[in-house]
Amino acid sequence: MKLALTPFLITTLISTTLPFSSAIVNPCGFVAQAARSRGADGTDGRDGREGRDGAAGSDRTLRATEGPTTINIQGKDGTDGTDGTNATNARCNFFHTEPEYDLEAADGGNGGDGGRGGDGGDGGRLTVYYQDPTQLRDIAVDAGGGEGGRGGRGGLGTPGCDCYPEDWSVTTCEDGNCESEAYECRPGTDGRYGRDGGDGETGKMGVAWLVKQSETLLPDNPEEVRAIADFPNTPVSLSRNLWETRTGALNVFSPGSVISDEYQEYTGRVEQQFQLEWAAERPPSDLSGTVDIAIDEQGSVQVEPVEELWIDSTLSTEGDLTTYRVNGAIVASEATRLALGRNTGSGDQLTLNILDLAGASDLVDTRFSLRYRTNTGDRRPLYVTRYEDEIPSELITREYNRFILPVGQLPIRSEYLRAGTDATVELVVTRSYVGNSAQQTLNWNGRL
After folding, report:
1. CA-to-CA distance for 306 and 291, rounded, in angstroms?
2. What is the DSSP track for 391-405?
3. What would the pLDDT profile of 306-361 be if each residue is shown by its tens digit?
4. What is the pLDDT of residue 12?
5. Residue 76: CB partners within 8 Å, gap ≥ 6?
């Protein structure tokens, strides 16, 4: 006959027996054990290493001459990924006694994933100067992309352990009263097989760039990014070599050549000088932004200041010189550096003071929208809107970098403007300059 375990004995046995995965304490103070692990789980296999990408083919420049020429600028192959390793077997204890708790058999290990194959390298760029198109037929070129490496194979997973027996019951008797409790042993989970690694991509074929002239092309400078504070006093030279995309390269070179059928043909060159003329009162050394200048295929210069700058400018071109004249500039973040000053007065003399901490108000257009609310005085705070609209610009006064907003002159009933009124103010300020704008919200609450 087995004796029923008291709560004290249960607690004592838990502290002296094998570890268990978790425990749940019930409201009565009894400790109910979760299923205990039986055996040791298998170890997962290691993932395979990825293959290395192949190197790109070398770029080559040559002049077409009489006689056959062979050019090899093929991309290199990617290397194979390595295999994932197999998992190790779980350590199983198939047979067990019939304890008064559930059991879980050990899980199998997962196989390691195979490594991805490396990508093949792209074929190189071939630039050819020629005068007679028939000379190109003597050039045999291999500018194929390298082959991608093969992916590694996934490792084998191992099976989980089984249980014998899978279920049983334990009968406990006390004072002639017997109760049976059912228990089970759950088999372990089989480990998964590792995934095979993907094959690498084949590299792109190289492209031909054809120049029908004997003179070597001058290097081009189609774009520059300059800091405004470091812009040189002398003009900056911009240039762009022009190319036209055509098809039929496989009919241009020697039969059997391996190269992209789409190629580039040189069609000319555009050049332009660019200068920055600073006419703003604020010195350029105060600004940390940059200007991106570029020449397009028509020879026109495009100017793009960074988003951090708001610039009032004009762009003019005379002959081969483009001038970018800066009439005024601010940093965008300066437009929203406003702060609430002290509010003064009450009734029709109530005013709000707004301070421009960046001192940009001589340049920037400023508009104010006000939402004014007061407390109804109920036991639970409840604010009711008394005014919500833009403040007419003719009512606003500016003294240098301070805006004076006459809230008391707005169509608000006088009892909501009395001294001691519990009020909240939400002020949305919209600042604009040469097509740019930003908003800032200022809030205040308290007693007038």
Report:
1. 6
2. PPGGG-EEETTEEEE
3. 778 899 999 999 999 999 999 999 989 999 999 999 888 889 899 999 999 999 99
4. 33
5. 54, 55, 56, 57, 120, 121, 146
Q: What is the pLDDT of residues 203-242, one digit of tens each?
A: 999 999 999 998 999 999 999 998 888 887 889 999 999 9
Give CA–CA dist 46/167, Å, rounded. Answer: 36
CB atoms within 10 A of CB 420: 8
What does the block give as tokens for 383? 């604010």
CA distance 32 to 26: 7
What are the Cα distances from residue 128, in Å, to 56, 263, 429, 436?
19, 11, 61, 48
Strand, coil or helix: 347: helix
Token pair, residue 440, equals 């800032």
Q: How far apart are CA 78 and CA 198, in angstroms?
A: 12
Sequence-distant (6+) residues with CB within 8 A of 41 are 90, 106, 107, 108, 109, 188
Query: Do 303 and 292 touch, CB atoms closer than 8 A?
Result: yes
- The dihedral region occupied by 387, where left means phi > 0, alpha psi between -120 and 50, and beta the remainder, is beta
CA distances from 274 to 242, 302, 318, 327 (A): 19, 10, 11, 17
Residue 12 backbone dihedrals phi, psi, to 5 degrees:
-65, -45
